[in-house]
Design a protein that fits this description.
Length: about 260
Amino acid sequence: MKSILLAFALVLLKCGGDVTNPKTMQINENQNASINPELHGDYTINRLHGDDVSSFNLKINFDKETQKVFGFSGCNRFFGTFSLNESTLKFGKMASTKRMCRPALVATENALLKALNNADAITFTATGFSVFSGSDLLLSAVNDAKLTIAYTASSRGFFKEVIVDENQIATVQKRGGTAIKKACDKATWQQVETLLNQLQLNELSEINAPSKKYAFDGAALAQLTITKNGKTYESSAFDHGNPPKEIANLVKEILSLSENIE
């Protein structure tokens, strides 16, 4: 029996048997690819325990100078303090107003406040941040002040992420890699906005891909994500190199900008 167990252990080691929690992997990848690891200003909470809560208009504001936090939890205003030390995040002395609301709002509010109380870790992305309890994703939020366009493409042997806002163009060429950044000048950003304004963002997720070779590793899986006015719009998956015609010009522009980064 011991020899069988030893052989099984060796197989696990050879096959990468370090059984890493996928949520923990997400924490590490998001943090490594972060663009602006700072917790300050206004954010909209768009996902709570994996659910899209954009319609509830949940808000959270951080003041890094006073270490105070406040926001809107769906029914009431909440306020308290927070402490941030690298990737460790803690909330303390949380309180809220006592307005009565319909059950759906109360349930969302209770879930949000519980998430804040249980939080112990944070990772930053180009568009905002995600909060965790251990390796469990509690919530995600986006920066209200930014219009951000992100293009990602990945397969077993390929990874590319390009993130563009009015200030900079950032490219990540490998999973967990460091972003290479370049300033985004006014003329370039105006061209990006012109192409973006040609899209119906509410219909972005309904656009059909012209091909799906990614489904059997025939192409890298690509996706376009746009964050505007605190709301995130995501396209359906499509093949890298063959985007739907509706977003083809914007994707071509984003990729072109990334190629000019040294």
